[in-house]
Write a structure and sequence with these properties.
The chain is of the alpha+beta class.
Length: 135
């Protein structure tokens, strides 16, 4: 199979008691994430949330779509000293995220980083299957 999607599944991260999530060390340099950055945050199909590439932020919010997925744009989040950020309360309630939930961290080369709850991972695999069938 020579089809390439340039997608990486990094690891599973935990939602800490004050709603913060740590961005995996491996994807920080690949996505250009630095301490004190302000990064845009979006929800995707009310299943996952993500940090899109800031260069595409305005275009994504105007279209309301990302790879044919419905998105809702929010403000930005601040990346703190331990490469963590706080999930906004609107996103937590819309996606039913609680403290100590596990989130799978998925990176698409220079486009986005998604955070998907473990019990919604089938959503992501359906996207991969669709992408592979169209490549």
């Amino acid at each position: 199979m020579d089809k390439k999607l340039n997608i990486k599944i990094y690891w599973v991260t935990t939602v800490w008691p004050k709603w913060q999530v740590i961005i995996p060390r491996d994807c920080r340099p690949e996505f250009g994430i630095n301490i004190w950055d302000d990064r845009p945050i979006i929800t995707i199909d009310n299943i996952a949330f993500g940090l899109p590439n800031p260069d595409n932020w305005d275009e994504i919010c105007e279209d309301g779509e990302l790879d044919e997925k419905s998105i809702d744009c929010f403000w930005s989040v601040k990346i703190w000293t331990k490469h963590q950020f706080v999930i906004p309360s609107e996103i937590r309630s819309a996606l039913w995220i609680k403290s100590w939930d596990s989130l799978v961290v998925i990176w698409k080369e220079w486009e986005w980083i998604w955070f998907v709850r473990n019990d919604n991972i089938d959503y992501f695999f359906a996207i991969i299957k669709k992408k592979l069938s169209s490549v």
